[in-house]
């Protein structure tokens, strides 16, 4: 996986999503399976970030704004605006060669077929990205946004769509990066080439 390949090449990596205590309790008890990304981190020896990391602004909440952390037993985690969370992601990314943040609420909204929810998660994503790009250093960094499938663009179906998804690239060598991407299978090799 990409985390293993990058660590083997001597690169510093970070999976920026924060996970609550409950997640670790479930996975340790065997009552919850790991996602592809969390399993990739585990196999590569990449530490999953916790509520403590989130409280220190060293991780990002799945919803950006930290809306449910108090009810998950973390009263010290103060909500933030999505734009501020974008600033935090830049600060995290600036400390690593490769940082991945996984935003799955667009997928959840698509499966729910709820237009109000879909608009809300997309507006939060827009605000989050605005905050990130306020600090983003284009001459030294590369930003890539991609999805593994579509679904939020067509709320008439609960399932994933077969629509093509965009690959957005910004920053250093963005054009060279974009011209090598024709499918998801090109993402990891291209990132490895660019970070070599």
Explain this structure:
The protein is mainly alpha-helical. It is built from 9 helices and 4 strands; from the N terminus they run H-E-H-H-H-H-E-H-H-E-E-H-H. The chain has helices at residues 2-8, 21-29, 36-44, 51-55, 82-93, 105-112, 115-135, 174-180, 187-195; strands at residues 13-15, 98-100, 142-146, 167-171. The strands form 2 sheets. The chain has a two-stranded parallel sheet with strand order 1-2. The radius of gyration is 17 Å and the shape is globular. The two termini are 16 Å apart.
What is the topology?
Layout: H1 2-8, E1 13-15, H2 21-29, H3 36-44, H4 51-55, H5 82-93, E2 98-100, H6 105-112, H7 115-135, E3 142-146, E4 167-171, H8 174-180, H9 187-195
Helix pairs in contact: 1-3, 5-7, 6-7
Give a quick rundown of the structure.
The chain has helices spanning 2-8, 21-29, 36-44, 51-55, 82-93, 105-112, 115-135, 174-180, 187-195; strands at 13-15, 98-100, 142-146, 167-171. The chain is built from nine helices and four strands, in the order αβααααβααββαα.
């Amino acid at each position: 996986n990409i985390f293993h390949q990058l660590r083997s090449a001597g690169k510093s990596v970070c999976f920026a999503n924060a996970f609550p205590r409950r997640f670790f309790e479930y996975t340790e008890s065997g009552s919850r399976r790991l996602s592809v990304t969390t399993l990739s981190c585990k196999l590569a020896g990449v530490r999953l970030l916790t509520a403590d990391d989130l409280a220190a602004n060293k991780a990002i909440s799945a919803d950006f704004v930290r809306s449910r952390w108090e009810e998950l037993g973390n009263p010290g985690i103060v909500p933030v605006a999505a734009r501020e969370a974008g600033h935090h992601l830049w600060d995290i990314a600036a400390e690593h060669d490769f940082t991945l943040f996984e935003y799955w609420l667009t997928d959840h909204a698509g499966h729910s077929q709820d237009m109000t929810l879909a608009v809300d998660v997309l507006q939060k994503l827009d605000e989050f990205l605005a905050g990130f790009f306020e600090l983003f250093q284009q001459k030294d960094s590369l930003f890539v946004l991609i999805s593994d499938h579509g679904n939020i663009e067509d709320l008439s179906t609960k399932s994933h769509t077969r629509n093509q998804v965009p690959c957005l690239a910004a920053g250093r060598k963005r054009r060279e990066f974009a011209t090598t991407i024709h499918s998801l299978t090109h993402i990891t090799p291209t990132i490895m080439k660019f970070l070599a």
